[in-house]
């Protein structure tokens, strides 16, 4: 038990032992992002899908109760303040325990993710959805890819990656996986629902993350 506590949140080195997993994730992410970026640059057919999905969700958002809308808006908190608090706590813990490799992993996710979003969003400079009657205050900067989904994958995904090896129960391992995925999906859906991004922005964010 003491060894389990001592090594809590240590990296399992899965991607070092099986680098093909990391390469597959990297290649799939690059391919998905590249296809979406090309579609954006050539005004491809997915832009019509973006408009259709955005308008449908906006109409739904205007008709739901305030309580439901406030709940969905929590995706902003999970993807903004949530990841900052999570990243800060994980970083502090790793400094105290002198887990330097894990600290580097958090730094890459907490700093590298937003930097990648800023660089890519300004390269593509895609406008965000706009409505005559907005359901929430939206950012005015470019929105491709979605920064919230980038950091959601890098931080919540990293936490799950570090937690799962410390859990002995198969049920709780899957519970952590499902919860992490649901949080990532909720953040992306929230940004779509309140009109902060188009569908391809969110998918591109997942790919980058």
If you had to describe this structure to a student in words, what would you say it looks like?
The protein has 209 residues and is mostly helical. 75% of the residues lie in helices and 0% in strands. The chain contains eleven helices and no strands. It has helices at residues 2-6, 14-17, 19-41, 46-63, 66-72, 74-79, 81-97, 100-124, 147-163, 170-193, 199-208. Helix 3 runs antiparallel to helix 11 and helix 9 packs antiparallel against helix 10. The protein is globular and about 55 Å long. The model is unreliable at 1-5 (pLDDT under 50).
Provide the fold topology.
Elements (H helix, E strand, L loop, with lengths): L1 H5 L7 H4 L1 H23 L4 H18 L2 H7 L1 H6 L1 H17 L2 H25 L22 H17 L6 H24 L5 H10 L1
């Amino acid at each position: 038990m003491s060894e389990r506590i001592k090594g809590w949140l240590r990296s399992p080195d899965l991607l070092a032992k099986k680098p093909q997993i990391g390469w597959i994730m990297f290649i799939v992410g690059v391919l998905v992002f590249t296809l979406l970026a090309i579609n954006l640059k050539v005004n491809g057919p997915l832009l019509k899908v973006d408009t259709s999905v955005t308008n449908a969700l906006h109409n739904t958002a205007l008709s739901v109760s305030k309580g439901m809308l406030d709940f969905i808006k929590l995706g902003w908190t999970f993807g903004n303040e949530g990841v900052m608090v999570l990243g800060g706590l994980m970083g502090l813990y790793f400094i105290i325990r002198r887990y330097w490799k894990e600290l580097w992993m958090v730094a890459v996710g907490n700093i590298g993710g937003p930097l990648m979003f800023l660089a890519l969003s300004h390269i593509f400079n895609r406008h965000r959805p706009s409505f005559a009657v907005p359901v929430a205050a939206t950012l005015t900067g470019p929105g491709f890819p979605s920064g919230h989904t980038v950091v959601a994958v890098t931080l919540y995904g990293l936490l799950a990656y570090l937690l799962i090896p410390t859990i002995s129960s198969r049920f709780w391992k899957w519970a952590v996986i499902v919860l992490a995925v649901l949080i990532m999906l909720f953040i992306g859906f929230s940004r779509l629902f309140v009109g902060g991004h188009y569908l391809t922005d969110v998918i591109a964010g997942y790919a980058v993350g």
